[in-house]
Amino acid sequence: MRKNLKEKLDNADKKVQKYGKC
Questions:
Q1: What is the dihedral of CA 13, 19, 20, 22, to 10 degrees?
Q2: pLDDT higher than threshold 80 for residue 6
Q3: CA-CA distance, 22 to 9, in Å (whole number)?
Q4: Torsion-angle region of 4 (φ positive above 0: left; ψ -120 to 50: alpha; else: beta)
């Protein structure tokens, strides 16, 4: 259950790294 949430957070983190941090 928590794993899915962590995956979403990881995905968001990867997007931030990909597009650069503002």
A1: -90
A2: yes
A3: 17
A4: alpha
What string of DSSP letters covers 1-22? -HHHHHHHHHHHHHHHHHH---
C-alpha–C-alpha distance, residues 22 and 5, integer Å: 23
Report whether pLDDT(16) > 60: yes
Q: Which of 1, 2, 4 is nearest to 12 (CA)?
A: 4
* Residue showing tokens 């995905």: 11
Unique residue bearing structure tokens 């941090």: 21
